[in-house]
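Q: I'm writing up a methods section and want to include an example of the input and output format. Could you take the sequence below and give the corresponding predicted structure tokens, formatted cleanly so I can copy it straight into the document?
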Amino acid sequence: MATAARKFVTISGLSDEVRIPRLGRIRLGHINVNNASGSTYPIEDPFFHVPPEVQEVYGEHPTELDIMFPVNDRGVVFPQAYEYYGSARRLLCTGNGKEAMRWNKDALVSQPCGCPCDLLGKGCKQRGHLMVMLPKVKNQGGVYQVDTGSINAIIAINSTLNILAPEDNPDSGMLGYFAMVPMKLRRVARDIYPNGMHKKSYPLQLSLNANEDEIKDLRARREEILAKTRCWVVEQPEQTNPEDDPGMIITIDDKPLERTSTTADTPLVSVQSNLARESTQQTSEQIPETSLTSSSAPLQALQAAEEPKPTPNETRTEIAHPTNTQPQPTAQAPKNPTPPADQAFPRPNRPTLSPSTEAPAPAQGQPTRTAVPTARESVTPLSMTLTRPQQDRILAKTRGIKIPDDIVRLKTATLTKKEASGLIDRLDRGDFSFFEKREVKAVPLPQSA
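A: Here is the clean output for your methods example:
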């Protein structure tokens, strides 16, 4: 028996909508950790940091990519604004240079304010989010996000889009549109002089990748392409604090980390935990004694800088540096006037050397050599504990409902940055259950008669 066909199988305005997901991020630099001070700072690289599927086509460090924009809306493919995150993970204030919307943590709403304000240059800066398709990459059907805070890059990309299709009069442009037009995105070296100091920068440069005949063909297909892309909806860019980017490449003293099982999308917290657990391995290298005598102070400084800091429950035994079969309890001072390495790189007191750790004596007739341990690169993971601004913000909330400060500090002492951010979000919503005191008492059951 035949069944009646369904009369309604589509929804007007919904069933024909095509949603384009965000597949990943392409980064323009990395975060470096200073092993001596523990401070972190971003460093711009002359190439793109791309996901694995993009590396299959362009290699590990490409300097140019073939791209297309999925839709003909500049506010979708390249939104740009002043952005302020502060110590929070989410965006707290955004504006266009005339007006802004700032999050009010007390009212739990975003409210209008003037722009720019006194936060400009103090955490607030211009940022653009480029959403591009990579037609030569196998992973199709989505866009990749490229974030930039460079004024030169923002101006360069806007200029190219204006040449192709000006916002006020698209028909006067070279093509009249830019959706699904083949282009090149490059990193181009540029000399800049911030505060009078020379610096090399590598801003983004966008250019049309078509000759004269291809330009004529693109003009002829304008209506066809715009009709096809008009119903496409692109996923909005992810706007998170650049300092909390979980997939950012991390280096220690600008040396790459040896990560065997982590990828570009591995959270930063996991990478730091792996670094903290990683045991430091030492190897011995044979160096003539004459070389040590002439450069003993720089060598000591290098060893001091690379030496890992022991944990409170960890004891370390160092390898002695004998020059003969007899143990030498103290090392000779360097002959040059270079200050000791301990003054340049402070380090904890060392345990007394044990004779059992001495290296074997050299064979008779051979020149005396000293075994010098060269420690594998040690790393100091980023501090992931609760920050002072986070604690102050938590205290500001708890004081409003009369929770004692000592109880708040005790309860939050072991929180990580991520856990503290989650707690702040809960407090902003009026949820103070984290500080509730629960007592469990044993109540005897009544005996039956």
